[in-house]
Amino acid sequence: MYTTSTTISRSQTASVYLIFTASGAAALVYQMIWARWLSLVFGNMAVVYPN
What we know:
By secondary structure, the protein is mostly helical.
């Protein structure tokens, strides 16, 4: 019978957190880039109402 160890080291956990954080940061940067590009193409659609 084979047994597998399910122990996860602290460095592996830190690596997973780092990967998720980097992925989220990259997604935010990508979103900012395409949102800015869309605003350049279609113009700013925000309406400001004075008080």
